[in-house]
Design a protein that fits this description.
The complex is a heterodimer. Chain A is mainly alpha-helical. In chain A, 57% of the residues lie in helices and 5% in strands. Chain A contains 1 helix and 1 strand, in the order αβ. The N terminus of chain B is likely disordered. Chains A and B meet through helix 1 and strand 1 of A and helix 14, helix 18, helix 19, strand 4 and strand 7 of B.
Chain lengths: 42, 605
């Protein structure tokens, strides 16, 4: 039972991770960092 | 994997065959496998480092925010402002005399992952490999480490990576004269008053100092974070009551006597009893070691005329980087002030939700651990985690208090970026996750748990999808550096534009601290005022710390023609500015490239 539960959780997390990677990896109009002379933006 | 025969003082009995992998005894018939298991957390850390850094490990320099490595760094001491990169910059410069500086940088970055993973694994009170790997993966792959790395704070991360080892040294440095150790050493157990006990007491601070070396190299932030954990751990550590310590680092003798908690036991005492006198002695000893290793930055800091603007509390307070607000962000080890330092995609409900669930499991696992079960650091680490969380929350919810403290004494300035003090909480969660996995006692659970930290934050991989990458400096920077460093004449170099940070196209427009601040053998005058963008579009200005900035600021406001003379009076010999800048018409142009221009203010101006 514990094995099945662990595998199920692992599978769900793997699917979620895949979606996150695809989302972030998709081309976006903005570059990862904006050319600011700021230290950063809150 | 073969189990370990329980010794006379074994705390953690070996599990059954399906227990997630019990460590075999080194030197036994399965010694090779024992060595592999012993090194497994470090190897896991190396693998995670390779995955996280990805493109940053290629040829070139990784430049992002505070992480500025330069070619041929000159070995110079601290400047006039607050010694933020002391002694890390000097150590890098000295290592660069014998090793290419790019290799130094990559070794430091990879070393952070290896040190963090192996250290967290060593703290887990379990002989099983699975729980230790789970803790290793969590501590080397979490939002805290990712965000601080994306802010370029590699020097801080040296201390964070070494934190488990420092905690272990503070709590465990005396391992008790176990029967096995005594047998191997061929001597009798230590007793108070004997020469061995004296040696044990003397060795304790040495071990602690060695464990704190990464933090000492890192500088003030790394040492402050380490002190936050080491002092309470040293003060509250109790003898492990007849239990052996957790699995140690490669080559460590699990029963080697030294100094520390058990050195204060009386003969025949069962151990585990906390006493005030020894606790004060240990805390005092740990404080002395911390202060000693802090001297490289502490002395210049106390001698500098640097000031700290209380406005920095508002600028650098922890913020919500997910749907659960600031508190939820901090509980999931995020919440860094800079939105550009977030891991891409970490703010989604999915990512934040699973990380919060993971944090809950980890804290539960730590809370269920008993101090007597080979975790003498438990109370101290919990104290440090709560204190660190408190500092982080104070900046967000009571900025007036923190601002008042900083206005009263600039020494409280390092507290303004409170989120960085979450490091002990991250370690607590890592150990807690390992303890939780230990309770489930299953290989499958252990395997999933070791993968979970990556699965809940997958976009930290590959340099956080391009946020970290290796680039090379354009040739013009190297030429300017060579010209200025070859000039024996005294005088400072003024770096323009009059701001602390740059976003060069050749660096993918990643924001970095002006590299000119680290390139030259002479004093570099730069504007260390910090501009922080606000969500509404405004900007918050944190006043400069270097008192020389005000004088340069006034000189730059002088009328055209008088500017050069005003700067020369301040001791400025060179001005490094943009190629198209023609502000200084009376200065001699020494070099002009596509991007930068070097001017010399000749004598007599």
């Amino acid at each position: 039972m514990r094995v099945l539960l662990a595998l199920a959780i692992g599978a769900i997390l793997a699917v979620g991770a895949s979606v996150a990677v695809v989302n972030v990896g998709s081309p976006t109009p903005e570059p990862p960092n904006r050319p600011l002379y700021n230290y950063g933006t809150r | 994997m073969a189990g370990v025969p329980p010794g006379p003082d074994a705390a953690v009995p070996p599990g059954p065959a399906a227990d997630g992998g019990t460590l075999p005894e080194a030197g036994g018939p399965s010694g090779a496998r024992a060595a592999a298991a012993r090194f497994a957390p470090a190897l896991l850390g190396l693998a995670l480092g390779l995955l996280a850094l990805g493109p940053a490990l290629g040829p070139g320099f990784v430049l992002r925010y505070d992480m500025v490595f330069v070619p041929d760094p000159p070995p110079v001491g601290p400047g006039e402002g607050f010694p933020r990169a002391v002694p890390s910059d000097l150590v890098v410069a000295l290592l660069a005399q014998v090793v290419p500086v790019q290799a130094v940088q990559k070794a430091a970055l990879l070393g952070i992952f290896v040190l963090a993973a192996s250290g967290a694994a060593a703290l887990v009170p379990s002989r099983r490999l699975g729980p230790r790997l789970a803790a290793a993966a969590f501590y080397a792959w979490n939002a805290y480490l990712a965000q601080r790395l994306l802010l370029g704070q590699w020097a801080l991360l040296l201390g964070v990576a070494g934190l488990p080892w420092a905690v272990r040294a503070a709590a465990h440095s005396f391992r008790g004269a176990s029967a096995e150790a005594v047998r191997r050493a061929g001597r009798t157990p230590a007793t108070p008053g004997t020469r061995e006990t004296w040696w044990a007491r003397a060795a304790w601070p040495v071990r602690l100092a060695v464990a704190l070396l990464p933090a000492a190299v890192g500088g003030f932030q790394a040492m402050l974070v380490s002190a936050l954990a080491v002092l309470p751990v040293a003060a509250t550590a109790r003898g492990p009551a007849g239990h052996p310590p957790p699995a140690g680092p490669p080559g460590a003798d699990p029963g080697e006597p030294s100094g520390g908690p058990e050195a204060d036991r009386r003969p025949g005492e069962a151990g585990g009893r906390w006493r005030v006198g020894p606790a004060v002695r240990r805390a005092g000893g740990a404080a002395a070691v911390v202060v000693l290793l802090s001297l490289p930055w502490l002395v210049p800091a106390l001698g500098s005329r640097a000031v700290t603007d209380p406005a920095g509390v508002r600028a650098f307070a922890a913020r919500a980087d997910g749907p659960f607000g600031t508190v939820g962000s901090l509980l999931t080890l995020g919440g860094i002030w800079n939105s550009d330092a977030g891991v891409p995609g970490q703010g989604t409900w999915w990512s934040a939700g699973v990380r919060l669930a993971l944090a809950a499991v980890a804290v539960w696992g730590f809370a269920r651990t008993r101090a007597g079960r080979a975790a003498p650091y438990r109370a101290g680490l919990a104290t440090a985690a709560v204190a660190g969380l408190g500092v982080a929350l104070a900046g967000a919810f009571a900025p007036g208090v923190l601002g008042g403290l900083i206005a009263w004494w600039p020494g409280f300035g390092p507290l303004r970026d409170g989120q960085l003090y979450l490091a002990p909480f991250a370690l607590l969660q890592a150990v807690g996750l390992g303890c939780a996995v230990e309770r489930w006692n299953s290989r499958a659970v252990a395997a999933v748990a070791a993968a979970v930290p990556v699965l809940v934050l997958p976009t930290f991989a590959l340099g956080a999808f391009g946020r970290l990458a290796a680039v090379d400096y354009p040739d013009e920077w190297r030429r300017v550096q060579a010209i200025v460093n070859a000039d024996p004449a005294p005088g400072a170099l003024l770096s323009l534009p009059w701001g602390a940070h740059r976003a060069f196209g050749w660096n993918g427009h990643r924001v970095i601290l002006d590299p000119a601040t680290k390139m030259f053998r002479r004093r570099v005058l730069w504007n260390d005022a910090l501009l922080v963008g606000l969500p509404g579009g405004g900007r918050l200005r944190v006043a400069p710390e270097d008192p020389a900035t005000a004088g340069v600021d006034a000189a730059l406001r002088a009328r055209p023609g008088a500017r050069e003379a005003a700067l020369a009076r301040l001791g400025v010999r060179y001005v490094l500015t943009r190629a198209g800048d023609d502000t200084f018409r009376d200065a001699a142009t020494v070099f002009t490239g596509p991007e930068i221009r070097l001017l010399r203010l000749d004598e007599g101006l």
